[in-house]
Design a protein that fits this description.
heterodimer; A: 432 residues; 79% helix; disordered C terminus; B: 408 residues; 0% strand
């Protein structure tokens, strides 16, 4: 670990020199490639350092991203981090593709109903608690205070829907890192994936209600069409991608990692442009492939693992660099309160509603549900864009919550998997 | 979305280029262009803002990070090839021969073309000199792939094949030095400031190279080694682009430093880079092609002069090289004809120049060199046959030169 610390420090010194040298230039050039290289290298060695401390590598990636990013030491400019959005989309697609290959029909039949019931219960309890807390905070939250009661109800519902969401990205990355396998891990992964699907539907409904409460009218047909397109359109496009992948894998049989990266890039970018969910597109593609041809599904899993190290290191380090620490200062107390209440609600719901057949679910499952990342970021940004009058302030509050969740979530997820006894090894080369 | 479509089109084209669909026996010129990557250059010209417009000038601006990555990677690979042990072993006449052939081509192109550049663009004298030097530097470069492939195919003996390859490897240094000089003259308001920027690029490269050697020292996991290598290449190219200094020169300094102090790691790093060399090169030449402005008639008028003068310079320079290297380096007769192919570094030089010296003159230089490089690639095949006019039979004959893959 000492070597990794030394290497990380040397990298940071080099970055400091580069950022000092930039001051000598009147104007700067593009900083995206610099951000990519710096975050990749720092992420890799910070992951090793984190592992030395018994933490998930992912925590190392996130922390070093925060440290060298524009909101702390400022070695990497904000434009550089923003320019890496494409990489983030690519990573989410790759991760969802791997997650999809875990969704075998046998598993869905075995735990599908129980997971869906528990998911609904956890989401409902968490939503109710956060909704109540947000409404109670109306007098002190600047964006809620001036609103009428129906408007405040709608905005609170919208915000609470976003706050409920989980992070399949973090969960899958930690599962890959620890090589965890077993019923608990399957249950956790299925729950975070289904949870995010529920949140997507609920978000569309809440957004429609909010728009109506602000005088925009309640367009039921448009609402159902939007939700339907996002869900079913994503599944259909995912199906088409799955067929394309199978044809390639059976016909060409060469350069699979490169092909998968290209296709995931297309899914991420194309999905966003077509108002589909890139996560769902890749998830559906992975699930269809593994259920049509299990051997090819395994090949995809293996190929993405090979490309996983740089993608995960860059994705999470960039996510860390994008965390707005200044938001913590302005809305810190409210965000902290909501973080604690959300955690308590998830804990209570798991203790109360998790199947009694496996005591580990009641005991440890809640820890795996704390993380928040890509989906929550995306929904918060959508609120900001859709409702410019109050959306940006809601976004700040949610991003402050994500910051807290990103820092403790991966640690808790890893602890849950370790406590469940399903972690196989700490050394999974080529993974997060 | 347009950028995405273009990337998908690149992927399709790369599959096509590596497929047997381009049969050399049916379309030898096209196959040669495809194998050398020059088909991507033409593809870029067609899709770029000045022809079809699938990629706008804004899109190209957004793809600058990719360009910086490509230039940085090319630089590091070049730097890694500058093996200090080999360079120390070479006798002086070899350097003299390399300088003679590249210097002659440089002078043949740079001196006569300064006047038309001055007349058509009305720039300051030092800007015109800088641009003409870049044209000369691009002309001085040659690609040794025909010689290497002819040797592999048994159509040229080993010593001669290696002799030509060695000359072409050394002329890369001339091109890079001229780029540095041109940047000193044109990339900043004063020559002193320009020199400072070039020094900054080299210093950045040296620091990154030394750090890369340290980071990869004793690294066992191949996935980690590849990640660190790619990360450092991105860092050196990205930092140079951020500081607006030459990514190519910084990359060369990085690679050369690693070659000097990296020990046994160098080979593994080179292997890791080798895996991405071809795709990065193809994307880079595609983007260079996109930068061509086809409606600049003055540039089209300069192309015949550039190609013709370069041809003469190479033929005459080849004779000088033969004279200087006689008794030390075995070279084929009419060696100048073996040096007509221009290679990818010429494109990197002009792309870097346009990056750092914005304006119409740099774009004109790019136009001339890009079109000239394609013409030279087409001329190179027939020209090389002149070198093989009296083949020395040895080894089992394999495929003809035209039939074999062309390295970049």
């Amino acid at each position: 670990m000492k070597g990794a610390v030394t290497r990380l420090l040397l990298l940071m010194i080099l970055l400091a020199i580069i950022s000092r040298a930039q001051v000598l230039r009147a104007d700067s050039g593009t900083s995206v490639t610099l951000a990519a290289g710096a975050l990749l290298l720092c992420g890799l060695f910070a992951g090793k350092v984190a592992k030395g401390f018994g933490l998930p590598r992912l925590t190392g990636y996130l922390l070093v991203g925060v440290a060298v990013g524009p909101y702390a030491l400022g070695f990497i400019p904000g434009e550089g981090v923003k320019g890496l959005d494409l990489v983030k989309g690519l990573a989410v697609s790759l991760i969802a593709l791997v997650a999809g290959t875990e969704l075998r029909l046998g598993l869905i039949r075995r735990v599908g109903a129980r997971v869906a019931l528990l998911c609904a219960a956890v989401c409902a309890v968490t939503f109710a608690v956060c909704f109540g807390a947000t409404l109670a905070l109306k007098p002190v939250l600047p964006f809620l205070a001036p609103l009428t009661m129906p408007q405040a109800l709608a905005v609170s519902a919208l915000m609470s829907t976003v706050v409920v969401s989980f992070s399949p990205t973090v969960t899958i990355a930690i599962v890959q890192e620890t090589r965890a396998r077993g019923s608990f891990t399957e249950f956790l992964m299925a729950l975070v994936i289904i949870g995010d699907l529920l949140v997507m539907v609920a978000f569309a409904l809440a957004a429609g209600m909010t728009r109506a409460s602000f005088g925009g009218g309640f367009d039921v047909a448009g609402l159902l069409g939007g939700v339907g397109w996002e869900l079913f359109g994503s599944v259909v496009v995912g199906g088409v991608l799955a067929v394309a992948m199978l044809v390639y894998m059976r016909g060409v049989k060469r350069e699979l990692p490169l092909f998968l990266v290209g296709l995931s890039f297309a899914a991420a970018e194309g999905g966003t442009r077509l108002h589909l969910s890139p996560l769902l597109v890749s998830l559906a593609a992975g699930a269809l492939i593994v259920n049509l041809d299990e051997r090819e599904g395994e090949r995809i899993h293996h190929a993405i693992q090979q490309a996983g190290l740089p993608v995960f290191a860059l994705f999470f380090a960039a996510a860390g660099a994008g965390l707005k620490l200044d938001a913590l200062v302005t809305v810190g107390p409210a965000a902290l309160l909501l973080v604690v209440l959300r955690g308590a609600a998830i804990w209570f719901a798991c203790r109360r509603f998790a199947p009694a057949s496996d005591p580990r679910l009641k005991e440890y499952l809640w820890m795996g549900l704390i993380s928040q990342a890509g989906v929550t970021f995306g929904l918060a940004a959508l609120v900001s864009r859709t409702f410019p009058s109050f959306g940006p302030q809601v976004e700040v509050l949610i991003v402050a919550m994500i910051t807290a969740h990103e820092l403790v979530g991966p640690v808790l997820t890893r602890r849950a998997l370790t406590a469940s006894g399903e972690v196989r090894t700490d050394e999974a080369p080529g993974t997060a | 979305m347009q950028a995405l479509l273009v990337f998908l089109a690149i992927a399709a084209l790369s599959l096509l280029a590596s497929s047997p669909a381009l049969d050399p026996s049916r379309f030898p010129s096209l196959a040669r262009l495809a194998a050398g990557g020059f088909l991507f250059l033409l593809f870029g010209v067609v899709l770029g803002p000045s022809v079809v417009g699938a990629l706008s000038a804004d899109d190209l601006g957004h793809l600058r990070p990719v360009m910086a990555l490509g230039l940085g990677t090319a630089g590091v690979i070049l730097g890694l090839n500058l093996e200090p042990r080999l360079l120390r072993l070479l006798p002086r006449p070899v350097y003299a021969a390399a300088l003679a052939h590249s210097g002659t081509a440089f002078l043949f192109v740079a001196l006569p073309l300064t006047a038309p550049l001055l007349l058509t663009s009305h720039p300051s004298l030092h800007a015109a000199v800088g641009a003409a030097s870049l044209l000369g530097a691009s002309a001085s470069l040659s690609s040794g792939h025909f010689a290497v492939l002819a040797y592999r195919a048994g159509r040229m003996d080993r010593a001669r094949g290696l002799g030509v390859a060695l000359l072409t490897m050394l002329d890369d240094a001339v091109g890079l030095v001229v780029l540095a000089v041109a940047l000193v003259l044109s990339a900043a308001p004063s020559a002193g400031e320009g020199l400072g920027l070039v020094c900054l690029a080299v210093l950045l490269g040296v620091l990154c190279g030394a750090l890369l050697a340290f980071l990869t020292h004793a690294m066992k996991d191949p996935a980690e080694l590849t990640t660190v290598t790619l990360g450092m290449v991105a860092l050196v190219g990205g930092a140079a682009a951020y500081l607006r200094v030459s990514a190519l020169l910084a990359g060369v300094a990085c690679g050369a430093t690693l070659a000097l102090v990296g020990g046994r790691t160098v080979e593994r790093v080179a292997r890791a880079l080798g895996r991405v060399e071809r795709p990065v090169f193809l994307v880079l030449v595609f983007l260079v092609g996109c930068g061509v402005y086809t409606r600049d008639w003055a540039a089209w008028a300069l192309v015949p002069g550039f190609v013709g003068l370069r041809f003469l310079g190479k033929v005459l320079g080849g004779r000088f090289a033969q004279r200087f290297a006689s008794g030390v380096l075995e070279l084929p007769p009419r060696v100048g004809y073996a040096l007509i192919a221009q290679g990818g570094l010429a494109l990197c030089l002009v792309a870097e120049y346009q990056f750092l010296v914005p304006g119409g003159l740099a774009r004109r230089v790019l136009d001339v060199v890009v079109v000239g490089a394609v013409v030279n690639e087409l001329l190179a095949g027939p020209a090389f046959r002149q070198v093989l006019a009296e083949p020395k039979p040895r080894m089992a004959p394999a495929a003809a030169v035209d039939d074999v893959e062309v390295a970049t």
